[in-house]
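# step 3/5: fold
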Amino acid sequence: MEIYAYAASGFQGALISVEVDIRRGIPAFDIVGLPDGAVRESRERVRVALRRCGYTLPAQHILVNLAPGSLRKEGTGYDLAIALGLLVASGQLEQNEETGALLCIGELLLDGRVLPVPGVLPAAAAALELGVEKFLVPQGNLEEAQSLPRGRASGLHHLQDLPQLFTEPWPEPSVLQFPSRSGMAGEVVDLAEMRGQPILRRMLEIAAAGGHHLLLFGPPGSGKTMACRSLPGLLPPLMAPQSLQATRIWSQAGKLAPEEGLLYRPPFREPHHSASAEGMVGGGASLQPGEVSLAHEGVLFLDEVPEFAPRVLQALREPLGSQRVSLSRAGRSTVYPARFQMVLAMNACPCGNLGKADGSCTCMPHDIRRYWRRLGGALLDRVDLRMPLHPEPAPVLLQGPGECSERIAERVLQCQRMQRERQGNRLNVQLTPQDLNQVATLGEEARFYLGKAVDKLALSSRAVHSCLRVARTIADLDDRPDLVTDDLLEALEYRRFGDKDLSWFVL
């Protein structure tokens, strides 16, 4: 029987062959293959766990080799593989003739119980790529391991259950299923709770339908945070490939709850403004994914965005363009996917009173400019939709609930299906300039207005393409195959803040 463990090294990781040699000599228990402190401590956990479960540790020289030796082994997930290798090598475990290659991952308590560990889904995916289709995982990770098709996973609660497990037929290949749990992280608000703001509702629907990035700014109490937190509720459930990839990242980062399977809803990440660049884009000694990768196929919400460090904000530019993050550290490198929808919220000025009817802004013009420059022109240029908000008056706030998120999400789902069928499983936000020449052609009148907008708003070429993508989404929501002038004008209205200068601060 070939026993494999898993080394979490970036998004792909690597399978580790666990070899056990028992020979005559002075009793010893050595682990080689570049183990870290946690792996070296496996000797004591395995020794005590085997003894308490009724097994014996041979009074001979035991050598455990973790290959390849050039890759550093970290964490406690090797315990179960080492214990299983010892039992097989010492003849204490009768294995099934059909067992063959086996991925084994789990942490041991001293009484023999097997604890869940992070990274089971990436480990199973890496095993399937190398033809290993049988997994032995902790019982708490069983649903996660069964998320992959073709995999034959078995859960283990205690070391004492091993003999029975290996005498029975191995489970049949799992079938890809989505759980009833939402898998959505963060607080999500139903749009029915929002009063008034019809233009904001329209913009949120456009952003959800096309995957466009969004910026909301205005005084406190104008509904910025509520609107941003409602966006994930407008998005359709993840499709199978999206769900597998997003769940794999969450499992690698240890974000999946015990006994949780695939993510069903788009992830929603809301990091605090004290987050570091490493926490945002990923990194560290083991090249862990950051917030932009955890938000893959979902929403990354940055509240009070000017409070983030400029270095953190500028680090978002690369993943926004390439939809991935390349990490390198000490001769190691990896690539994480990072296709997310960025949503920003902020005050219009440092004091927060700009745009407030009964407030008086105490900020000087240069203070406001400095405040907005923290975003950086390059990052702001990548935001498709921008909108100033005002607090609604009391009579509006006392009105009944508006249209709920569920009904809007149905229209968004139909719109996205139309886009994916037309564009090869891509949303409008992913259209290239060449694609726009095919699906977002403009008439003579619309070209005239676009030229005027480029001169008046100082739009860059990226901004022009952004407006065309938004206009395409507006036409899709209205089920029109061709763009009309009103589609472009509405898209330009959502783009008119922030490209030219800061003289538009009269809300």
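# step 4/5: annotate
The CA atoms of residues 56 and 301 lie 54 Å apart.
# step 5/5: archive (pending)
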